[in-house]
Design brief:
By secondary structure, the protein is an all-alpha fold. It has helices at about 1-35, 40-50, 75-95, 100-115, 130-135, 135-145, 155-160, 175-190. Helix 2 crosses helix 3, helix 3 packs antiparallel against helix 4 and helix 6 packs across helix 8. The chain binds zinc ion (2 copies). The site of one zinc ion has 5 residues, from helix 2.
């Protein structure tokens, strides 16, 4: 009984450690994707994510589209963006820590299919204390306004530690996002 508890506790601790490493790698990949330079393919791919008009998407609670179950997020750039910044770092960790990595791969899959997009990451109704710890709602939406802040994915910790966190002014967020998106769509149609 005690042995079983110890094994579970050890696994839990290791799982948390691998999760920490994964969130750090995602943070770094996302930050790298924001190095604006013609020779940076990550930026060209990631730009597709910033062009999605999340605030004007009609329904925030619909069942995921069939393609989403296959990690098709609407275009090859949007899918590749998630695979490069989230899946590849986790596959690397899975190679080093198979049991913990496989567990997190399941979490990653379910999160991407059911929870990211407009449910958590881009849900303007999520604000306040929760967004101090989780990169959801207003916290992540502020990244869509200010591309030099709030790089953290899923959690905010690395932004706080590395000096890139910014808690947005809740009332101005929707207005700022709309302005930013109008500018991006003008740029892309020019
Ligand atoms: Zn970004
Ligand atoms: Zn986003």
């Amino acid at each position: 009984m005690l042995e079983g508890f110890q094994t579970a506790a050890t696994f839990g601790l290791r799982l948390f450690g691998v999760f920490l490493a994964w969130t750090l790698l995602m943070y770094l990949m996302h930050r790298l994707a924001h190095v604006v330079h013609p020779a940076n393919p990550l930026w060209r791919i990631h730009l597709a994510h910033h062009r999605v008009p999340y605030l004007s998407m009609p329904d925030r609670s619909h069942w995921p589209d069939p393609g989403q179950f296959l990690f098709w997020l609407g275009s090859w750039k949007l899918s590749l963006d998630v695979i490069i910044s989230m899946t590849v770092p986790l596959l690397l960790l899975t190679w080093l820590f198979p049991a913990e990595g496989l567990t997190l791969l399941v979490v990653h899959y379910l999160y991407e299919v059911f929870l990211s997009e407009t449910r958590l990451d881009h849900n303007p109704r999520i604000k306040g204390h929760l967004t101090r710890f989780f990169a959801w709602g207003h916290y992540h939406l502020y990244h869509h306004v200010n591309l030099k802040r709030n790089y953290g994915l899923i959690v905010t910790w690395w932004d706080w530690l590395l000096g890139t966190a910014r808690m947005p002014d809740e009332h101005r967020i929707p207005h700022l996002i709309q302005k930013r998106q109008q500018r991006l769509s003008k740029e892309s149609s020019a």
